[in-house]
Design goal:
elongated; about 80% helix; mainly alpha
């Protein structure tokens, strides 16, 4: 069984050099650090937002489970009385 990347083959050494050269030609050498920094910040914000949403979903699921458990306890108490 061979493992293939999700989005196709990963570029190797020579391909990465060509991509870097094209990036330098498009954006200029002075803008590349700023571009990399802003990309990293955007990825960090995306990750933070995803973690916030996951936390909210997890909290909602736990609250729903607690409510269901409390409802079952209330039903049991009314049956036993």
């Amino acid at each position: 069984m061979s493992l293939t990347p999700l989005f196709g083959p990963v570029p190797g050494g020579m391909e990465m050099m060509i991509i870097l050269l094209v990036a330098v030609l498009l954006f200029g050498a002075n803008k590349l650090p700023k571009l990399a920094r802003s990309t990293g910040q955007a990825m960090g914000e995306f990750k933070k937002g995803r973690e916030d949403i996951e936390r909210e979903i997890r909290e909602s699921a736990e609250a729903a489970e607690r409510d269901d458990f409390e409802d079952e306890l209330a039903e049991d108490e009314t049956v036993n009385v």
